[in-house]
């Protein structure tokens, strides 16, 4: 039976009238996105009710820009927006949409598009962006963006320079792509981040003076996750192997409560051995004639072993003056799953 345009329109109207409003939606295909746009155009309350929107179309060959733009215009009350898209045409400017209640923006799109979007959506507080395509640090468009209102930022380290040192609470940064500059040197360019309490720092094997740098930049840090990137090098010096210096620098971070260290190398002679791990933890938090760390109560260790793909994870916690291993795994664990 051939369906006429009127019959199709009547079917859409009936579907729209019976579609229950939802607060959160996820679209993973162009077909589902088009269907939503058709229904929301007929019944605006469908789009008005949405406060969490995820559009994940990164596996498609090309993004449906017109449909995307129309979809965003139909969700004026959205607060959380996740956009995962295939590569966009240069200067597509499809995100020229003002969303007055938007708080969170997580995306993999080109940083020029992100910069344009931030300019017309100053309410954004939580920002996550993907890798930068620029080989020269100074040419990333985000470096010219005003990030003064951002309190939670995940970004390549070289792509921002105008954060508010009195507002930024959480920062997740990675090493500088295409450049030999060390992560610690680049991190110092922030100056002092007075309000920062949570930091996730991805660093290279040749980075050193990590804790000393952190004391200079974010002295009030409470939650710290240090993630060493994979490397073939076996000759790099890791500063946590120098126990006295590592312990002294940890103690200077007097607000630190949680520390997670991930490294592809073994950190004890017998990986996974509880007694060796305990001795390591105690060397880090106390020493002969030295008081214990004033606030640190959790240490997560994620490290390699003798076998090429061996990984060990331990979760140590303190009660009073006693450190105990509460959790131990030998199966692979993604660094984003660490506590």
List the helices and strands and how they pair.
Layout: H1 5-18, E1 24-27, H2 30-42, H3 44-48, E2 52-56, H4 65-73, E3 80-84, E4 104-107, H5 111-120, E5 126-129, E6 152-156, E7 170-174, H6 183-188, E8 198-203, H7 210-217, E9 223-228, H8 243-252, E10 258-263, H9 274-285, E11 298-304, E12 311-319, E13 322-329
Parallel strand pairs: 1-2, 2-3, 3-4, 4-5, 5-6, 6-7, 7-8, 8-9, 9-10, 10-11
Antiparallel strand pairs: 11-12, 12-13
Protein name: F-box domain-containing protein
Mind explaining what this structure looks like?
With 339 residues, this protein is an alpha/beta fold. It has a domain at 125-337. Helices cover 26% and strands 22% of the residues. The protein has nine helices and 13 strands. The protein has a 13-stranded mixed beta sheet. The model is unreliable at 5-10 (pLDDT under 50).
Number of H- or I-type helical stretches = 9
Trace the largest sheet across and list its strands. 1-2-3-4-5-6-7-8-9-10-11-12-13
Question: Residue ranges: pLDDT <50 for 5 or more in a row?
Answer: 5-10
Average pLDDT reading: 83
What is the CA-CA span between the terminal residues? 58 Å
**Pairing-aware structural class of the strands and helices?**
alpha/beta
Estimated share of beta-strand residues: 15-25%
Order of helices and strands: HEHHEHEEHEEEHEHEHEHEEE
Overall 3D form: elongated
Task: Give a quick account of the main beta sheet: strands, pairing sense, barrel closure.
Answer: 13 strands, mixed
Radius of gyration: 24 Å
Number of strands: 13
Classify the helix fraction into a percent range.
25-40%
